[in-house]
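Hi all, posting the design record for the shared folder.

TITLE: backbone redesign
STEP: 1 of 1
STRUCTURE INPUT:
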């Protein structure tokens, strides 16, 4: 196995789903107030950040005023876009005709935007895009296909597609921890912990279960039932999560018995919230919605 090492020692991560055949999606912005369990959505502020027939999706905050996401052009090629909330401007971090970038996020060291790249030969591997706009660098040449990912200790938990699929954490060179197999696409580090959390794949018609694996001590835990039919969740902080069903957004404490509705996003043009990103600094929730 060939490893590419940078000045920031990083490994890898991912989750499921083929990176092809995307539907038209847009990003919406909702202002918020309060923190944690007291979070409120100011529903009347909900508005579209993007409005195109192509795919704008997979938002992730990289600092207290910038968001990255994957966006398709009219030819179906996907690039990494940076949106600046201060200047209200969009900038291409990548503009590649021979590959498509998905699931961008900031690395722990803050020097790179990582992305799952669909290469010209259809391999799905993780590349690093320096924040100073220097050329991208391949992180691993023989780990593929990968999907979504999240970081812990400059290393990553990764969903590797295969028979069976595997969620693994790269503790070191040739030292992979196998966490689980039958899981859905969301893989998220629980803030201020060493836990990787994910949704175990549900039986037909049943909700998935949000579980955790502690990288430091190997302990496993079961937190709560996910919302039936939903594959995406995010952590607001160490104790509170968000999920959505249709156009309705829900909040839950990790050890609480039930989800609490925060409101419904009204729209004549968009439906079905999937991925979300939250900025406590901006008091903003960014959501992805499908175009009707």
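Okay, here is what came back for every position:
SEQUENCE:
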């Amino acid at each position: 196995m060939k490893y590419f090492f940078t000045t920031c020692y990083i490994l890898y991560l991912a989750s499921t789903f083929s990176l092809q055949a995307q539907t038209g999606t847009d990003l919406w912005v909702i202002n918020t107030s309060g923190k944690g369990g007291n979070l409120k959505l100011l529903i009347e502020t909900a508005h579209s950040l993007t409005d195109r027939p192509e795919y704008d999706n997979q938002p992730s905050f990289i600092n207290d005023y910038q968001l990255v996401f994957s966006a398709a052009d009219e030819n179906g090629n996907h690039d990494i876009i940076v949106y600046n909330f201060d200047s209200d401007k969009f900038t291409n971090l990548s503009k590649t005709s021979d590959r498509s970038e998905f699931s961008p996020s900031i690395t722990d060291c803050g020097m790179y935007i990582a992305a799952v790249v669909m290469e010209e030969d259809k391999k799905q591997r993780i590349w690093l895009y320096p924040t100073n706009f220097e050329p991208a660098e391949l992180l691993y040449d023989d780990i593929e296909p990968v999907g979504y990912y999240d970081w812990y200790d400059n290393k990553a938990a990764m969903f590797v597609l295969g028979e069976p699929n595997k969620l693994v954490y790269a503790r070191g060179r040739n030292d992979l921890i196998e966490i689980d197999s039958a899981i859905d696409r969301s893989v998220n580090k629980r803030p201020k912990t060493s836990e990787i959390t994910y949704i175990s794949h549900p039986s037909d018609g049943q909700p998935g279960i949000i579980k955790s694996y502690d990288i430091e001590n190997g302990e496993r835990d079961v937190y709560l039932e996910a919302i039936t039919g939903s594959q995406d969740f995010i952590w607001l902080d160490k104790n509170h999560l968000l999920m959505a069903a249709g156009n309705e957004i829900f909040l839950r404490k990790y050890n609480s018995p039930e989800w609490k509705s925060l409101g419904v996003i009204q729209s004549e043009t968009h439906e079905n919230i999937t991925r979300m990103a939250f900025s406590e600094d901006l008091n903003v929730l960014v959501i992805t919605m499908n175009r009707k």
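COMMENT: The chain is about 0% helix and 50% strand.
Let me know if anyone wants the other runs.
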